[in-house]
From TrEMBL:
InterPro entries listed in its UniProt record: HisE, PRib-ATP_PPHydrolase-like
Lineage: Archaea, Methanobacteriati, Methanobacteriota, Stenosarchaea group, Halobacteria
Protein name, per record: Phosphoribosyl-ATP pyrophosphatase
Pathway(s) this gene product operates in, as recorded in its UniProt entry: Amino-acid biosynthesis; L-histidine biosynthesis; L-histidine from 5-phospho-alpha-D-ribose 1-diphosphate: step 2/9
Location (main, coarse): cytoplasm
Taxonomic superkingdom: Archaea
Biological processes per GO annotation: L-histidine biosynthetic process
GO CC, alphabetical: cytoplasm
Subcellular location field: Cytoplasm
Organism for this UniProt entry: Halorussus limi
Reactions mediated catalytically: 1-(5-phospho-beta-D-ribosyl)-ATP + H2O = 1-(5-phospho-beta-D-ribosyl)-5'-AMP + diphosphate + H(+)
Sections of the chain in a coiled coil: none
HAMAP family xref list: HisE
UniProt GO MF annotations: ATP binding; phosphoribosyl-ATP diphosphatase activity
Length: 109
C-alpha cells in the first residue's frame, strides 16, 4: 500500500475504481434487462428519462454547492454519490462508458 497524492492508498484507489466499474455494470444491466422495480430502468424507458437525468444532475449540483458552503461533509459525500450515479446513467444513455471518461482524464495528466 503506497500513499498517493490524495492520501488514498493504492488499495483504496483500486477499490474506488472497482465500485465505479460495478455501478456502471449495474446501470448497463438495468438498461438491457429493464426490471419493473428499477429506478435506473425507469430512466431508460420513460419518454422524458433523459430530461429527468439532466434535471437531477442540475439539482444535485446545486445541493452539492450548498453542502460545500455549509462544510457539511456527510451531505457533500451524499450529493457527490448522487451526481456520480446520474452521470454514469447519462454516459450509458449516450452509448459512452467509463473508458471515455478515463481517456479524457488521462489526457490531462
Ligand atoms: N446509486 C444509485 C442512486 N442514487 C440515487 N438514486 C435514486 O435517484 C432518485 C432520485 O435521487 P434524489 O437524489 O432526488 O433522491 P434523494 O436522495 O431522496 O434526494 P436528496 O436528498 O438528494 O434531495 C431516488 O429514487 C434514488 O433512489 C439511485 N438509484 C440507484 N442507484 C444505484 O443503482 C443500483 C440499481 O438501482 P435500481 O435501478 O433501482 O435497481 C442501486 O443498487 C444503486 O447502486
Amino acid at each position: 500500500m503506497t500513499g498517493g497524492p490524495t492520501g488514498e492508498s493504492a488499495d483504496d484507489a483500486e477499490d474506488t475504481a472497482a465500485v465505479l466499474d460495478e455501478l456502471f455494470a449495474v446501470v448497463e444491466d438495468r438498461k438491457e434487462t429493464l426490471p419493473d422495480e428499477s429506478y435506473t430502468a425507469s430512466l431508460f424507458t420513460h419518454e422524458k428519462g433523459e430530461n429527468a437525468v439532466l434535471e437531477k444532475l442540475g439539482e444535485e449540483t446545486t445541493e452539492l454547492l450548498l453542502a460545500a458552503k455549509d462544510d457539511d461533509r456527510e451531505e457533500i459525500a451524499h450529493e457527490s454519490a448522487d451526481i456520480v450515479y446520474h452521470l454514469l446513467v447519462l454516459l450509458s444513455m449516450k452509448e459512452m462508458d467509463l473508458a471515455d471518461l478515463r481517456a479524457e482524464l488521462r489526457e490531462r495528466r
